[in-house]
Amino acid sequence: MRALMVPIADDALALALDRIWVFTTNADDVCCHDPAEAEAILRAGALPEQGASSPNPRYIRHMFNEVAPFCDPTFLAVFKTFFHNAITGVLMEAEFTPEASDEVDSDFVRVFNGFSQFCFTALQFADPCLSARHHRAFWSAALSSCVAFLNDVNDVLSFYKEAVHGEDFLASRIYRRSVSEDIPYLAAYRRSLDSGLAAYRRVLDLATDEQRPHLDRYMTAFAYFHFHCRRYRWHDIYPGLTPIDI
């Protein structure tokens, strides 16, 4: 997934980013089912004097130390902040009630979840034209749309996997919206799809001619991976899709 979305020529940097993406995916799953681990990660990140109480915070330090030589220190601090913001989002989302109509389920909580800020800004490693240090104005303008794209398209392309699981479907953003707003599920689904496509267009509109191909590749590859990765089960519906084995 990282190689498709953020192609990197430097092998050491590519490996460091691979480890970050794999660990982040695993940490998200772990923390969603174990809020105590999310709390331990946040304490270790924001209160380092307390020390690491589990292997996860120790590995987080290692993974950021690996990528540190390849980026500006200020970006590294922001990158770490985005990571811990997502862990905060996990804790907030854990307060959702089983009922779909839930005041906790807000746009504020939505922005924190899914590591979207963290994952999208990793694109700054792909080319100097996207450097967070030298093109901060672009990222400041575009990041909200970047997050909207990843959140909405992930919801749209995860729905079948979640439906097969059952419990994940009931917790999904699209289902909860359809129930809370009393609208058909398909209408809620189409709203997420339209929102994701609008975000895609906004990101490209904000980009320079030099930046645009990298951003287009990132977002197109995100959708491509979801369609072809066995985890999302689209091959069950469209057998002609060539699966990506991971």
Q: Which overall shape is indicated by the principal axes computed on the Cα atoms?
A: globular
Number of helices: 13
Q: What percentage of amino acids are in beta strands? A: under 5%
Average pLDDT number: 89
pLDDT < 50 stretches: none
From the alpha-carbon coordinates, what is the Rg to the nearest angstrom? 18 Å
Largest sheet, in brief, is: none
The percent of residues in helical segments reads: 55-70%
N-to-C SSE string, H for helix and E for strand: HHHHHHHHHHHHH
Number of strands: 0
Distance between the termini: 9 Å
What structural class do you assign from the helix and strand content?
mainly alpha
Give the tags.
246 residues; mainly alpha; 69% helix
Please characterize this protein's 3D structure:
- This protein has 246 residues and is mostly helical.
- Helix content is 69%, strand content 0%.
- The chain has helices spanning 2-5, 11-33, 35-46, 55-67, 73-93, 107-112, 116-121, 136-165, 167-170, 173-180, 185-206, 212-228, 234-237.
- Helix 2 (11-33) runs parallel beside helix 5 (73-93).
- The protein is globular, with a radius of gyration of 18 Å.
- The chain starts with a helix and ends in a 9-residue tail after the last helix.
- The model has no long low-confidence stretch (mean pLDDT 89).
